[in-house]
Amino acid sequence: MLRAAILGCILVSLVHALPQYRDRILNGHNVPNPCCPGRTWDRVGHASPSGTQLNRFGSDFSANGHRFTEQLCLADSDGDGVRNGQELGLITTQYNLETLCRFLVEYNMNPRAIAFLQYRGLLGNANSHPGICDQTGPMSNCRPPPNCRC
């Protein structure tokens, strides 16, 4: 019985924190940690670094078949006023966000397409978290996530 409980806990952990999901998210390995500047948030779709609860981006990612779709790219999952694609590094000085999101989806997030966007200056580093409201400034309604510590 104890063995089954332990196995169940391990399986739940694997299902809720699959590292390969980061490969399916634009700049998924470089999403800034809103609690610890200079660090990354390894569990992009989760509300905390260690819990299983999904944040809004994680729920949206799940609802989109665990794929970074055009709809997910254009959404503002955390409600901070910045769309997911922009938070994850898309630069909209030459093209609009819709065009860049569509390009990524049409090429299935192919590493060559991502490298092309980087080469053309259309993709930089992720600059904020798409699932945790972390924008700062006088117009921001964001609050740090609970248990926010390094």
Describe, in plain words, how this protein is organized in 3D.
The chain has seven helices and no strands. The chain has a domain of 101 residues. It is globular and about 40 Å long. The protein has 150 residues and is an all-alpha fold.
Brief digest:
This is Temptin-like. This protein is mainly alpha-helical and 150 residues long.
Topology (SSEs and partners):
Elements: H1 2-16, H2 20-23, H3 56-63, H4 70-74, H5 84-87, H6 97-106, H7 111-119
Q: Give the termini distance in whole angstroms.
A: 36 Å
Assembly context of the chains? single chain
| H/E element sequence | HHHHHHH
Low-confidence runs (pLDDT<50, min 5 residues)? Answer: 5-16
Number of strands: 0
Number of DSSP helical runs: 7
Amount of beta strand: under 5%
Major sheet size, sense and barrel closure: none
Category from helices, strands and their pairing: mainly alpha
Q: How large, in whole angstroms, is the Cα Rg?
A: 16 Å
Overall 3D form: globular
What is the residue-averaged pLDDT?
Answer: 86
| Helix-residue proportion | 25-40%
Protein name: Temptin-like
Organism: Crassostrea virginica (Eastern oyster)
Signal peptide: 1-17
InterPro entries: S-S_Temptin (IPR057626), Temptin-like (IPR055313)
